[in-house]
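re: that complex we talked abt at group meeting.

here r the seqs, copy pasted straight from the sheet so there may be weird spacing, ignore it
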Amino acid sequence: MNRPQTLFEKIWNAHAILTRDDGTTLLWIDRHFVHEGSFHGFGMLEHAGRTLARPDLTVAVADHYVPSHARSQPIRDPEVAGMMATLRGNARRHGIDLLDLDDPRQGIVHVVGPEQGLTLPGLTLVCGDSHTSTHGAFGALAFGIGASEVSHVLATQTLWQRRPKTLRITVDGTLAPHVAAKDVILAIIGRIGAGGAVGHVIEYAGSAIRGLDMEGRLTVCNMSIEAGARAGMVAPDETTFAWIEGRARAPKGDAFAAAVAAWRKLPSDPGAGFDREITLHAAEIAPTATWGTSPETALPVVDRVPDPALEPDAARRARIREQLDYMGLEPGRALEGIPIDRVFIGSCTNGRLSDLRAAAAVLRGRRAVVPGLVVPGSVPVKHAAEAEGLDRVFRDAGLVWGEPGCSMCVGMNGDLVAPGERCAATSNRNFQGRQGPGARTHLMSPAMAAAAAARGEITDVRRLA
Amino acid sequence: MTPFTVVTGPAVALNRANVDTDLIIPARFLRKPRSAGYQNFLFHDLRRAEADFPLNGIDPVVLVADANFGCGSSREGAVYALVDAGIRCVIAPSFGDIFAGNAGKNGLLTIVLPPDQAAALRNQLPAEVSVDLPRQRLRFPDGHEHVFEMDPFRKRCLVEGLDDIGLTLEHTARIAAFQEADRHARPWAQPDGTEAP
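got the structure back, here u go
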């Protein structure tokens, strides 16, 4: 009898080409996604006179800089236009499949990979983007890398990695009505902190996680990096296999059956050991919002922002004060009722069809009292949403319906929140200046962002149900 | 990559936890070519928003931060900005994993010190600090020497300025053998609609 293994260990061991005496392992990489921002990696590859090892395992997607409006017109900002042209040139020169602006598959890389069946259980996936952890929802080992590592993967289809530790986060029980996957992951980060999982791969487990659909699992794994984790993963199950079947690049027919048989062996064995374990009770998770400039400042929406005067630790007191100052908030005030200036619904965290449905369900028959932007995660998501009339719901509410991309989550395409403005956002980072210099971001679920739009202030979505 | 042996020079303290890579370099600068230098983007918005920001008026070679420095985005531009501004070493109780990886590839030494030691060091700054990587010793401004831990491979890459792609390519035969075996073990891992080369 072999020693029981975790999901992570099984994938790691299946990809280990060799391990050096110092413990560093050369890992085989099954999928490499590149985007406009990967230009540094291509530059290093070409500067060293190297060629791309496996163009067939490399997929290029235009997402970070793509305009959210007027796609048929030339891009006005010459630097942004240059980023798009560089991606095109790199894809063409190296023979990589490119999901360009006009491609019916285009979208945010972390929405597109699963959608196209490129993301599968048991794979290793990397991308020069920290939210690559998203793909772990399928029971894959997926993590973000920097430009030098992008160059390494381009040249070798491998990566040197130190074996991370493992952390199992179990969420048991049933989520209350109007509590979404976003609330689950915000609650987890609020509990363990922005550095709580540094050096670890998280496996999310428990009945509340198994009860999530694939889109909810993607949302949870997406924000693993916001707890500092190297990656996040969920064991593949029938929900996973049903989602994959029939996707364009997924195995077909007998090959699919053989794949499922292999994938069924992936979940952590009973008795497998984790370096750390944490348990949360699903019933205790409420609709959540952040108040500060780190995702760890997540609180139940019925709560109050902290008062530094009540914090005994000097360093923590100073940190609370700094964040309240930046966010323009009174110490100890209620989170509900904080007036907002705009909403952003979208991103690799919450730009999928179920997210748009959840937001539209709140806004149907209501008017937003603040401006807002809704950006579907991909062209297929956009078309599916339009087929259901979700775009009409958002437009009738007074929000703008955009074209798929990263948009206002990171603002690289010019979709920015103005200095001092407060944005209710379904994205993943409320960092100082993330949505633009001086911008103030409150993270929340799509339904909560829709409620904020309808009321013009942070609102417990249960009031509008 | 500049090999790293002994570096002595001014160090400054950043007394805040979770300094994310968006703070180190705002997203709008990431489209810039590296050839022009990234030094002017380092903490660009923070330096302007906070007149007493610790790097204003000082060009340190060592930065001493609090926990989880470099968390968030995988942007290697954060490391380029630090390196191009002349910073050779960042010391903190912990680092974002991706940031630490990026640092190592660009000759930027990241040293993990226990929280109390890092706090003690920050309290002595700004002042001169000496970092001896081959001996894994750190000299605080008060003259005391402290040993630090270091991954042996990362140390070798930093001290010798090694190109790790070059090192990997020495294993080409092993990689090819792995691919051949893996193709049979996991035929489903190949994307549908493409032929393996």
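couple things i noticed - Chain B has one domain: 6-162. Chain B has a mean pLDDT of 94.
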